[in-house]
Task: inverse folding
């Protein structure tokens, strides 16, 4: 097989699966590791893929920005699944800062059902409404300018309120995650709040359904670092999951991965 033909097949494979490891490619094409590495380097120069440690990922696709009502009905089962895994990272009496969005609301509903003593800080009215009748919770709503499309508050008063707190964990729900581009979202005002929550918490946990992986957004919330903790559903492609693990990025994805992930200490 000529190099050009092999490289074309590599692109097709990665675009279909989202990712491929070097070992998988050497076995598939019967060539050496050095040959595959040269192929990947050449394809990256052509902007056909992105190399990472251990393999390559497809070029991140632009995520779709939907309004709150559209998002609330999308991937509902995936969100309900992933928040159950996120529950394993929460302890009674934790102080949590919780983001906005449909995943955040699913997370809030899970907290209401599974925990008795928590302190929750949020600027999202949907999260507040999901928790307001849980009398054993201590609930703080940071208010400011009202953003109707997200049913949430934003602006300097919210940021000033957040600065008064220190949380055990910030629970953020980005629109896109990518090894290359990092943790991303779309709204400038809400990204400012997300960054403040990260600054005021001991740990940050990102909740993202599997459709948000290897997508790009408009604004970067954070770099993809080795201390990132991502929680997703069991639908995340095996190839993408493996390369995140290869790059020492912690992803909790489904029950079968939880025993290994649960050894993470906070």
Result:
């Amino acid at each position: 097989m000529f190099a050009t033909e092999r490289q074309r097949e590599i692109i097709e494979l990665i675009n279909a699966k989202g990712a491929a490891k070097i070992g998988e490619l050497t076995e598939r094409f019967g060539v050496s590791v050095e040959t595959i590495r040269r192929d990947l380097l050449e394809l990256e120069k052509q902007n056909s893929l992105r190399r990472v440690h251990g393999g390559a990922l497809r070029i991140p696709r632009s995520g779709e920005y939907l309004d709150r009502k559209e998002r609330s009905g999308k991937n509902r089962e995936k969100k309900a699944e992933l928040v159950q895994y996120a529950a394993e990272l929460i302890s009674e009496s934790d102080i949590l800062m919780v983001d906005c969005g449909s995943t955040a609301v699913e997370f809030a509903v899970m907290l209401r059902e599974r925990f008795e003593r928590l302190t929750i800080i949020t600027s999202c009215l949907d999260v507040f409404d999901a928790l307001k009748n849980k009398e054993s919770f201590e609930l703080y709503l940071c208010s400011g300018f009202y953003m109707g499309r997200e049913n949430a508050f934003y602006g300097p008063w919210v940021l000033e309120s957040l600065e008064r707190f220190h949380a055990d964990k910030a629970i953020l729900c980005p629109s896109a995650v990518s090894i290359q581009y990092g943790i991303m979202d779309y709204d400038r005002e809400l990204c400012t709040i997300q960054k403040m929550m990260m600054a005021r918490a001991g740990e940050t946990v990102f909740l993202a359904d599997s459709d948000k992986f290897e997508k790009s957004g408009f604004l970067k919330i954070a770099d993809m670092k080795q201390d990132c903790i991502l929680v997703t559903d069991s639908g995340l492609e095996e190839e993408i999951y493996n390369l995140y693990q290869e790059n020492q990025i912690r992803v909790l994805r489904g029950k079968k991965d939880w025993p290994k992930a649960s050894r993470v200490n906070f």
Remarks:
- The domain at 3-59 is CATH 1.10.10.10 (Arc Repressor Mutant, subunit A).
- The chain has eleven helices and 17 strands.
- Confidence is low (pLDDT under 50) at residues 259-266.
- The first strand starts at residue 19 and ends at 21.
